[in-house]
Every structure is written in structure tokens, then in C-alpha cells.
Amino acid sequence: MACLYESDVPAEALDRSREVDIFGARYVRYGDMKFYLPIDVEDEEAYVSGGVWPNKTVRVAFADDLAPNRRQNIKDACGAWTNATGIHFTEEAVSNEFAYFQASDANNAPVGYHPGRNAVVEIASWGDLARIAHEVGHVLGLQH
């Protein structure tokens, strides 16, 4: 799959503990990046980074319990990416194929767009806009 930035992560470097997000999607974690198993693939070695979001638009939704100031921090971080890249972020109700932001005890995000999947972005560093923007960069397809 094409990414904004392509870099293969060696399989042996992935944390092989399987995790499941709140929408039931399986993934493995590598640092603060999540790699999802494609919907139509059962091969446990097929975890991949995603592609580019359609129409240069990322649909965004927030966990219900996310405070207004935290939502604004996310919007500010997304705005920085819009200014730098022209990629747009639109806030929508929870549906399908969107970036879903929630509070967590760690910062992490899926890499790129995954058709049929929601990108669950977990943020712990709410006072650090650069860190939030970093996680949004993963959602756009950027890897370390």
C-alpha cells in the first residue's frame, strides 16, 4: 500500500502481542505506531501500514468523554497539518473510516488510512501540541 512516506518495519521489530482496538480491529504496536491487520486477511504476519486518505480529507471523531480543551488541542494540531500539507480534517459523528481520538495513558496512532477501519488515536500528552501533531502525522501515513 502507498503511504505519504514509505518505510518497512521488519517483522521481528514488531511487538508481537496482538491487541484489539475499541472497534474490534486487530493490530500490533511498534513504539507509538499501530499496524492493522487488513480486513480481508487472516495471515497473522500481514500487519501493514495504511495508505493515503481519500480526497486529502481525514474525517475526525472524538470520544464522548473528551473535554472541550482537549478537542481544541487536536483541532489545533490538525490545523498545523492542514497549513503544511493541504490535507483537510472534518469533524463528524462516529461512523466508519475516520480518525477517532480518545484519552489514554500512552500516545499512539495507526499509520495511514485503512479502508473499512477506524484509526483509533490515543493521546496522553494533552499539553504537548507537538506530540499530538506527531500522532496525527502517523494517521496521515508517516512513520519514524
TrEMBL record:
Q: Catalytic residues per the record?
A: 135
UniProt keyword Secreted, yes or no: no
The alphabetized list of GO BP terms reads:
proteolysis
Judging by the UniProt lineage, the source's domain of life is: Bacteria
Entry cofactor note text? Answer: Binds 1 zinc ion per subunit.
Recorded hits in Gene3D superfamilies, A to Z, give: Collagenase (Catalytic Domain)
Binding positions (Zn(2+)): 134, 138, 144
- Cofactor or coenzyme needed: Zn(2+)
Which InterPro entries did the record assign? MetalloPept_cat_dom_sf (IPR024079), Peptidase_M12A (IPR001506)
Keyword Protease assigned to the entry: answer is yes
GO MF terms listed in the record are: metalloendopeptidase activity; zinc ion binding
Tell me which UniProt keywords the record has, alphabetically.
Hydrolase, Metal-binding, Metalloprotease, Protease, Zinc
Occurrences of domain Peptidase M12A (ranges):
45-144
Kindly provide the name given to this protein in its UniProt entry: Astacin like protein
Q: Which organism is it from?
A: Methylobacterium oryzae CBMB20
